[in-house]
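Re: [ENG-882] Designed sequences occasionally contain unexpected residues at chain ends

Forwarding the minimal case from QA. Structure tokens:
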């Protein structure tokens, strides 16, 4: 199979896998397993719907809730998707509110004035939880009751990870759900429901963000740009690896050149940043994505330049026979290992040239320990020399 056939096969398998996962999630999004179903009933939770229904509906003091359980999903080579359990109930139209435990990243954005958190004036509540809303006034009205704030604090002390209001829905979510330790907390959480859902005024639906809401910003501005950058990076990476393996030998020089050439592309990023700063009630996640856009532009230009430099290179190949000095391997964070064959540099005498090689070739070098390698290089369309192939030298 040639490179195009491999690429099409990879694309078809990816689409089939994604479609299967979407169907699986749609089928299981509102159902829970029999073991958990029986344990919830034994814990005293009044479950109305029979087992196997598409929706697991329970009831407490006249409040109808939907229960949703997603078991842990393990993907080979990736971190498993954690198990989740959520309780969802209908409420009158309300402002969009998200409450999570305050962590270092939220505190950083709040201290620097990049994200405006809703403050209630309750020291224990404000120091423990991070509250974001598209309508701070309506959110303060919701949190004005001391009993409600106490119930929310108690909820998070019982392992809750997120409380959300919006779209006429209140949702309580547990992540890394463990049946043995979390079921008693969920049972107690039902006792807190009346304090969470009563007294919500429909007037709170009004938003103070103006026409540029965070939802519109994410949907029509940020998402298309991030998707475009991801597609550019993915396409450049696939063609660089499948079609012509190997980035330029002077990768650092190409990166700095890409930084200069990407300056015009940084203008949209700065405009987006200014628009985001105009509404400081947006979530810290939106600001985090916006702040990473400049480096994303630079990396996109860098990968595209590497692809153009190799794919459109029509120069004559140069055969270099050079001694093998050593082999090396590195690992970046949790990513895969990278393997290198180091030879004397012909570009900078007295220095080493460490070239990326496959795992199979790396083990071959470690086993056979050849004295010389044959390296085929080209000058590059943009003038950055790159290695076409690396083989064991055969006289």
């Amino acid at each position: 199979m040639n490179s195009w056939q491999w690429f099409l096969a990879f694309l078809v398998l990816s689409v089939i896998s994604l479609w299967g996962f979407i169907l699986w999630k749609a089928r299981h999004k509102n159902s829970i397993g029999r073991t958990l179903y029986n344990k919830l009933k034994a814990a005293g939770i009044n479950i109305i719907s029979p087992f196997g229904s598409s929706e697991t509906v329970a009831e407490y003091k006249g409040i109808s809730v939907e229960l949703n359980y997603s078991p842990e999903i393990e993907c080979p080579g990736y971190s498993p998707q954690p198990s989740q359990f959520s309780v969802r109930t209908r409420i009158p139209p309300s402002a969009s509110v998200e409450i999570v435990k305050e962590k270092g990243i939220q505190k950083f954005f709040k201290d620097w004035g990049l994200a405006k958190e809703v403050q209630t004036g309750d020291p224990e509540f404000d120091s423990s939880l991070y509250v974001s809303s598209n309508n701070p006034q309506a959110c303060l009205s919701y949190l004005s009751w001391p009993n409600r704030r106490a119930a929310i604090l108690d909820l998070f002390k019982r392992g809750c990870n997120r409380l959300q209001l919006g779209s006429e829905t209140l949702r309580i979510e547990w992540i890394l759900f463990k049946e043995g330790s979390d079921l008693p907390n969920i049972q107690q959480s039902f006792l807190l429901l009346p304090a969470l859902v009563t007294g919500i005024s429909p007037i709170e639906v009004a938003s103070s963000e103006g026409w540029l809401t965070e939802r519109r910003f994410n949907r029509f501005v940020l998402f298309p740009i991030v998707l475009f950058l991801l597609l550019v990076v993915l396409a450049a990476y696939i063609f660089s690896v499948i079609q012509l393996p190997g980035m330029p030998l002077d990768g650092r020089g190409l990166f700095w050149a890409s930084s200069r050439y990407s300056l015009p592309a940084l203008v949209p990023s700065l405009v987006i940043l200014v628009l985001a700063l105009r509404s400081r009630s947006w979530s810290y996640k939106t600001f985090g994505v916006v702040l990473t856009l400049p480096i994303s532009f630079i990396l996109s230009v860098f990968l595209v330049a590497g692809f153009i430099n190799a794919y459109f290179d029509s120069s004559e190949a140069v055969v270099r026979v050079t001694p093998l000095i050593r082999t090396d391997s590195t690992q970046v964070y949790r990513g895969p290992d990278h393997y290198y064959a180091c030879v004397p540099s012909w570009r900078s005498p007295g220095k080493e040239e460490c070239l990326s090689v496959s795992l199979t070739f790396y083990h071959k070098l470690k086993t056979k320990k050849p004295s010389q390698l044959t390296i085929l290089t080209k000058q590059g369309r943009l003038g950055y020399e790159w290695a076409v192939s690396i083989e064991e030298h055969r006289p």
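QA comment: On inspection the terminal residues look reasonable. Residues 214-242 form the longest helix (29 residues). Proposing we downgrade this to a documentation issue.
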